[in-house]
Amino acid sequence: MTGTPMLRILGRPSSINVRKVLWTAAEIGLEFTHEPQWASPEAPASTPEFLRLNPNGLVPVIEDEAGVLWESNTICRYLARKHGRTDLLPAEPAAQAGVEMWMDWQATELNGAWRYVFMALGRRDPAYTDPHEIAAGARRWRAAMGILEARLARTGAFVAGERFTLADVVVGLSVHRWRATPMERPPLPAVEAYHRRLLGRPAYAAHARPDVP
Length: 213
Hints:
By secondary structure, the chain is an alpha+beta fold. The chain has helices at 16-28, 48-51, 72-82, 93-122, 131-155, 166-180, 189-199, 202-207; strands spanning 7-10, 32-35, 61-64, 67-70.
């Protein structure tokens, strides 16, 4: 590809959802421009310019020759399909649904479990200081990670089965956040083995750094 890449990725890289898209693009080997300032104090996502792209005022957003997309898991699926990466998102309906099931679980059940406690203990956000909510969030997070532990113990490899897929992009970053948050965690040997497998992928190592939980 010559000239300016057609793919723009907008959003601060401290966002786990932005990193999903960056990791997916890296796995595919795409050329793109990243605009990391969006959703930062320097370029709030509440500006009219950004709201024209995503009326929700959230990152990530991508723009390519086909138009604008938001919602991180949708973006990841779009990029995999557009570039024919059936290793990341299978074409066969049952296998595809298995990958998407775990992607949706991450976005709903797992994200919902860790949101309060991570903002309290990971981000130290002064709006998240209720000790009861922190304790309840920690219990929900541990329970969700217990589901993942059982799944990985069963597959012995990756979330959707024997092969790496988009499910591992989204769940893998949540595993990184789990390990990086200063809280009491039960031993999860299958999750730890999974994390070590993911570290063998350069894109995971790049987007799951200790300084970016």
